Amino acid sequence: MLKSKFIFGNRLRKTRKSAGLTQEELAVHTGIDELSASARMSQYENGVHVPKYEMALRLAEVLQVPVEYFYTSDENTAELLLLWGQLSRQDKKKLLSQLQSMTGK
Prior knowledge:
By secondary structure, the protein is mainly alpha-helical. It has helices at residues 2-18, 23-29, 34-45, 53-63, 75-86, 89-103.
């Protein structure tokens, strides 16, 4: 569990910075009270706490990434999830079909 806290926190920090948001801005966009916003994001990013799944969903929505990105321990899978999240619904179906045919399923 300890490792997953740091994976989540590192990915959250990286994505937040990439989006050009401060900890407080991100927290406020997800509905966290301004008084505790920065401290709470800091705890998430430093692995002190992992947010409940519902909060992770809100973070992912604000940062426009798939929520699964925060949890995977494999870097290639994380990159794939980011790319997947950028595809349209039609392109996702097409890619999934291609992958299924490549694996014989």
